[in-house]
Specification:
This protein is an alpha+beta fold and 465 residues long. The protein has 13 helices and 23 strands. Bound molecules: glycyl-adenosine-5'-phosphate (GAP).
Length: 465
Amino acid sequence: MPKRAATALADVVSLARRRGFAYPSGEVYGATRAAWDLGPLGVELRDNLRRQWWRAVVHGRDDVVGLDASIILPPATWVASGHEDGFADPLTECRSCRQRFRVDHLRDGETGDDDGRPADLVSAVCPSCGTRGAWTEPRRFSGLLTTHVGAAEGDEGEGGRHHLRPEAAQGVFLNLANVVTTSRSKPPFGIAQVATCFRNEITPGDFLFRTREFEQMSLAWFVKPGEGPRWHTYWLEERTRWYVDLGIDPDDLRHHEHPRPGPGEHTTHTVDIDFRFGLPGSEWGALEGVTDRADHDLRAHAEASGRDLSFFDQAAGERWLPHVVEPAAGLSRAVMAFLVAAHATDEAPNTKGGVDQRTVLRLDPRLAPVKAAVLPLSRNAELSPRARALATELRASWPVEFDDAGAIGKRYRRQDEIGTPYCVTVDFETLDDEAVTVRERDTMQQTRVPLAGVADLLAQKLRGC
Ligand code: GAP
């Protein structure tokens, strides 16, 4: 039984648009399924996630350093990595409505296959018009997005046809020798990168889940040959723990093993960390892939470039090519996953003594776009300036909103809906007792606190934000 209601995702997308987390890209020109723009709250959530990842993977350790490589790398990169020839998906067209789809994204019309496995084409139903089994012979379609740089068409050197990177890792591999020399790193160690990537997806859609432009948080972890499997297990556990620590219910996560490579194929092993997105047609979707890439990439770049990318192990007195374990997380998908995971409805008391339905984003404070809202009980010549002054004081440390427009109940509802963990209310008693009420988002509990102590209280509650 699906745990997440089919309408949950639609509710999240609606909230995201209404409150300013994300907008369909180019809406004034009719928009597209292929891209979303992050709004004022979306950029904060995305940046908070990226910061938490960087803290966990780079700053929280002494064996990982950061990098920011170019989006456009030498074309030879993608030949050596195998993307030029191999990064292609089988494409088929519905003979009835002429829409095109990736074969592995089609679902079984009889079983309604819901476990992410592709359907047999004979029984696959067209997601666009509902016709069953009317598919053209699949053909390969490159997932690389291509551009032309410089003045010279057709030149594969400095100018001419180039690809926009489809993954973060290759830019790291090209810089391995630079980083080893300048940061004196030695395996086991890692290079982390948050990178905008591009893929010519045939069937983009499902909100931020599959877009042609997206952000990846990738760690290339270099190890001694033979140690890949042990580190693969380590990083799968570490990365799973990261999602749980930031508020994802472990029951909404699973590990999904990719089929092991056949004889002659690259010696890679991938386990995806899947999240229960509640997508139409497939409840689960990959959040992150943890791959043991062995020495496939470094060997290919060493051969193609003629550069020695091996590492001299002084302790053992031997030279070897490091193996790579790569946890690669989708940052855009993580924004969507945390929105889905945090979205809830419950009941809140109203001013008439009854209860109202409320929508609340139970985001971990570390992820919440706005950390606190300062709300005068009503717009008033005495209350509003006091509240504004408090908001200004708190803004020195966190993103804080001030709002005095409309009924206080409605203002609480708005802050609940955007996931603000604390509301601070300045009321008429404040003018006498120099105290305010701090309301906690999830429990709705209210505590009276001296005005002068609000910043210290929030500093305690928002540690790590
Ligand atoms: N370097 C390995 C790699 O790129 P991947 O499984 O293709 O592996 C890693 O991508 C993650 O990037 C995925 O788990 C997903 O979260 C994210 N991702 C991949 N394609 C995406 C797309 N078109 N839109 C949004 N996120 C995507």
